[in-house]
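Model the whole thing, not chain by chain.
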Amino acid sequence: MNGDRVRAISRRQAYVLVRAPQRWFDVVVWPVVDAILFGAIGVYFGQQTGTAAASAAFLLAGIILFHVVFQAEVSVATGFLEETWSRNLLNLMVTPMTELEYGAGVAMFGLVKLAIGVTAVSVVALIAFAFQITSLGLALIPLVTILIFVGWSVALIVIGLLLRFGQGAEILTWGFIALLLPLSGIFYPVEALPAALQPISEALPTTHVFAAAQQVVAGNPLPWDQVGIAAASAVVLAVFAVWFLTHMLGVFRSRGYISRHV
Amino acid sequence: MTESDPGLRAPILTATGLVKQYKRIRAVDGIDLTVDAGERVALLGPNGAGKTTTLMMLLGVITPDEGNVEIVGHRLPRERSAAMEQVGFAAGYLPLPERVRVVEFLELFGRLYGIRQPADAVAAGLERFNITELARAMGNELSSGQRTLVGIIKATLHQPRLLVLDEPTASLDPDVALRVRTGLERLCADEGTALLVTSHNMLEVERLCERVVFMSAGKVVADGKPDDVASSFGRADLEGVFLHLAESSGAFPTADIDREAS
């Protein structure tokens, strides 16, 4: 892998973020809106039962961690979308850059966007609801790491679908990851879901990450069995995502879909 | 490097037996094409002849159903990255990304093509085409002709062995087109750069290219010096050949011109 090419793509992504105010919506505005919304819901329901602080903490921990996976996915997928919007895809495809170098460059700057987004939601949670995400301690490290890999894997699947179906599929950039929100038991145990959805929920790595986070928020030690299941299913998802993207790239080249982007 | 240098006429691009079928349309039907170092070749033909599909296969963006492409000894798709280090590409129809300045765009692609410190090459390129005042302009502030010039500078930054230009002078004023043509002739003569160009401007082709390859219905129907190809069709110039092929439907007489002998 050529580091100069990776850094060049990251720099290109930085230009886009700095000069496109609407991009800040994904990075800052949605996280802030979510933090206020779910924090307030937690406080309100908690007041009904006399557990306001605990309820808010439960919801805020969930939404902050959800924004890790959301930002990881959206930053990479929109990074690719930017090349289709600006009709720059052909220019990039005829350079010596490999797909891996491109992906690494976008993901590298994606981490910057992720840091900005998660910081925004964490600061609002702290200021408005006195919830400190760092209270989860070192447990955050494995949980956040798994969520970032899950976000990147979903992004690869979304990019594969964009290559196959063109810009008409761009809604999946935000829609696909939104499916994880109800299915991952972010704010409730899996048992609260309809019975038919529970097996799907159990198969998702995010479900086990959030279940582990809820244990820690409740004051229990990190359940490593949940972390292990999450890590294993994240690896399976990553392998599938790489296979899917490679297959879709083959279809893209074979069927001449570049004509959609010139 | 001079015309007498034996290395000057070594093959840079070799394509054999290229076939591409899109559902019921055979876009390319058994194309063989060789371009030697320093050679200036035009790939011509009416709309739907298969030029663009052929170019995209030569650049590795579309996978051929049959046939092989080799660039400076590197076989596609296995050695695509190494092959593309030797290739520059520009198209008159491709815009510049809106959110980058000209100098940033050129430096990005300089790095993607392996130039570690591209600033000097970028400055020289802007100077060569007399558009240094555009260095800080944003992509969406340029006229179509200026965008084309920037695209050509991008394609030549890394001194490629093969320069592929798709409709390069389509939107240029005659004086600018002359400057581009002169620059390209000098590049091919001085550096031994091979040029493969598509154009609908037959006068431009006659001035720039020493060899023309006409395609029709996915096949090569003529290959040789412009004058020889025109006379083989009983026409005064390439414009006449183009119009003849565009008006014809079905089979075309193949002008089997031995370019080595001519």
